[in-house]
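USER:
I would value a second opinion on how I read folds in token form. Give me a protein, with the fold worked out from its sequence. Write it directly below this note and I will take it from there.

ASSISTANT:
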Amino acid sequence: MLQLNRGYTLIEVVVGIAILGIVLAVGIPNLTHWIIANKAKAASEFYLDGLTMARRQAVAHNARSRFVLTPNANGQYDWQVDLCFPALAVPCTDDTGNWSTATAVASGDPEGLTGFKSVFRSASALPPSNVLIPSVAPEAANAIYFTELGWVDTSIRARLTRLRLDPATALAGDVRAAALSVTLAGMASKCDPAAQAPDSRACPL
């Protein structure tokens, strides 16, 4: 039996478009909120990776390392990990030393031109600071230095001890405040700034 293809009537098309519009109007804002919330939750891991890398590279290369924060256009912090091989005449401090860069190895690197080049990570993919608010302690600190054994170099003044990330009001119901603390042994860990001792999630004093 011969069957004829039936098209859509104008009313069916209009109803279909209206339903699609409603679905998009409801779904897109929720999807956008979900994506931003998940990026905010992952922000602490972004910084934890850098702190862990800085300590690991110091130990692996028997060198000094530093983790440096730099504010970027969205109000978050890019980070970079540098290495320095101390010499008798030129120690590795916050204002002296032949530190590696993203394009060149540090002088004294035993691996020569194939040695360690600084690792840079951009925070441009993180939510902007009007959504996720970063703060550092002590105020204005932007770096932490590690010794060859992976311990924090306490001779560096105003070293970074904590990085805190607070959600803006719009995300407060979905994202908890988070912080990263670094012990004198160089171990970085996530903690909950809202928790109080003896809660194991509380940040160290």
Notes: The radius of gyration is 25 Å. The chain has one domain: 11-191. The mean pLDDT is 85.
